[in-house]
Design goal:
Blueprint: H1 3-29, H2 36-54, H3 59-73, H4 83-98, H5 102-123, H6 126-201, H7 206-235, H8 239-252, E1 256-260, H9 266-285, E2 291-299, E3 302-309, H10 320-330, E4 335-341, E5 344-352
Helix pairs in contact: 1-2, 1-4, 1-6, 2-3, 3-4, 4-5, 4-6, 5-6, 6-7, 8-9, 9-10
C-alpha cells in the first residue's frame, strides 16, 4: 500500500494529540503557585509516552503516564478549566484507536468514568469532567477513526485487485499445463512401451524391433508437432476477445474503462494482445487508477495501441514488464514507449501493419 495514507494518518493523530493537550497546558501555566511545574512535568511525561507508543513502544507506557499525570496535573489550574478532563477525553479517544475488539470500547468508557472520578475529588463536579472527556474522545474517534477505516478499505481493495490479477495468471498457466498434459501424457506412455518392446525384440526378431522403433519415432514426431501447434494456439490470442476481457476485469476492479479499436491483421493482433495483457496487469498492480483508456488505431501503415490511466504511483522505470514488451515487439520491428505526466501514465505500442 502507498505510504501516503499512513503518513496522513500519523499527522492527524499528532495534531489531535497536541490539540487535546493545549487546554491542560494553558490551564497549568495559569496556575499562580509553584505547583504548576508539577503539571508541566505531568504533561511532558504524557507527550514522551505518546511519542514512544506511536513509534512501536508498549501501550502500557502511555497507560502508566496517564495514571501518573492524575496527581501531577489534575490539582493544577483554575477549577473552571477542568484541567484533567481533556486528558481523560484524549485517553478515551486514543484507547479506541490503539486497541482492538471489545477492549477498545471498555477502555474508552473507563477513561470517561475515570475523568468523572478525578473531577469529583478535585472540584466536586464530575458531570462536567465526564461531558468534556466524552466530547473530546468522540471528536478524536471521528476525526482519526474514520480515515483509518477508509485506509483499511483501500488496502483491502488493492489486495483484492492484486489477487485477481495473480489468479488470472495462475488460471492461464493451469490451462496451458492441462493442454500439454492431455497432448503428451498418453503418447509418451505409448512411446515408452514401444521403445521397451523394441529393445526386447532386438535379439530375437530384428524386423519387428525395427518396426516398433520406427513407430516410436513417428509418435515422437507427431507429439512434437502437436506441442508446437498448442504453443502457437496459446500465443495466437484473439485481440477483440482480449480487449473485451481486459475491459471487464478493469471495470470489476472499479476502474472506468473505454475501448476503441480498428480491425488488425492476425499476426499484429497477436502481438498487441500479449502486450495488452501486461498493460492491464500494470494498471491493476502498479497504480491507483480510477479510469483507463485503450485506443488502437491504424496510422500510415502502422498500428498504434495507446493505454492511458491515472493514479500512477511513481516515475516510470524500465522494469521487467516494459523490458519484456520491448523484446517481444523487437522481433516484429515494433517498439514500446512509456511516459508519466503528473499522475497519468501512458503506454504506447507501435507495430508495422
Amino acid at each position: 500500500m502507498n505510504d501516503l495514507p499512513h503518513t496522513a494518518l500519523r499527522g492527524i493523530l499528532h495534531v489531535l494529540w497536541v490539540s487535546s493537550l493545549a487546554v491542560p497546558l494553558v490551564s497549568v501555566l495559569r496556575e499562580p503557585s509553584a505547583t504548576r511545574w508539577m503539571g508541566v512535568l505531568g504533561l511532558l511525561v504524557l507527550a514522551v509516552a505518546y511519542a514512544v507508543t506511536l513509534r512501536g513502544g508498549r501501550l502500557w507506557w502511555l497507560v502508566a503516564a496517564t495514571v501518573v499525570s492524575i496527581p501531577l496535573v489534575a490539582p493544577v489550574g483554575p477549577d473552571e478549566m477542568s484541567t484533567w478532563a481533556w486528558i481523560g477525553g484524549c485517553s478515551a479517544g486514543f484507547a479506541a484507536l490503539l486497541l482492538t475488539g471489545v477492549w477498545r470500547w471498555m477502555a474508552a468508557i473507563g477513561a470517561v468514568v475515570l475523568a468523572g472520578l478525578v473531577g469529583f475529588f478535585v472540584t466536586r463536579d464530575q458531570t462536567t469532567y465526564q461531558m468534556i472527556a466524552a466530547s473530546v474522545g468522540a471528536t478524536i474517534i471521528a476525526m482519526a477513526g474514520l480515515p483509518m477505516w477508509f485506509a483499511g478499505l483501500l488496502a483491502q481493495a488493492r489486495a483484492g485487485r492484486e489477487a485477481r490479477a495473480e489468479l488470472a495468471v495462475s488460471e492461464e498457466r493451469l490451462r496451458f499445463a492441462r493442454d500439454v498434459h492431455d497432448l503428451l501424457g498418453h503418447r509418451l506412455t505409448v512411446i515408452a512401451l514401444k521403445s521397451e518392446l523394441a529393445g526386447r525384440l532386438a535379439a530375437t526378431d530384428p524386423e519387428r524391433s525395427a518396426a516398433e522403433a520406427f513407430e516410436a519415432q513417428r509418435l515422437a514426431s507427431t507429439a512434437l508437432e502437436s506441442v508446437r501447434d498448442a504453443v502457437h494456439g496459446y500465443r495466437a490470442v484473439d485481440l477483440p476477445s482480449q480487449l473485451e476481457a481486459v475491459g471487464d476485469v478493469l471495470r470489476e476492479a472499479g476502474i472506468r474503462c473505454t475501448v476503441s479499436s480498428v480491425p488488425v491483421e492476425a499476426a499484429t493482433a497477436t502481438q498487441l494482445a500479449l502486450v495488452l495483457r501486461e498493460a492491464c496487469t500494470n494498471v491493476l498492480r502498479h497504480s491507483h487508477a480510477t479510469w483507463c483508456m485503450i485506443d488502437i488505431a491504424d496510422d500510415d501503415g502502422e498500428v498504434r495501441m495507446t493505454v492511458t490511466n491515472d493514479g500512477a504511483e511513481k516515475p516510470v522505470a524500465a522494469g521487467n514488464g516494459l523490458r519484456g514488451m520491448g523484446e517481444r515487439l523487437a522481433s516484429v520491428s515494433g517498439e514500446v514507449t512509456a511516459e508519466r505526466s503528473d499522475d497519468t501514465f501512458t503506454l504506447q505500442v507501435v507495430v508495422p501493419a
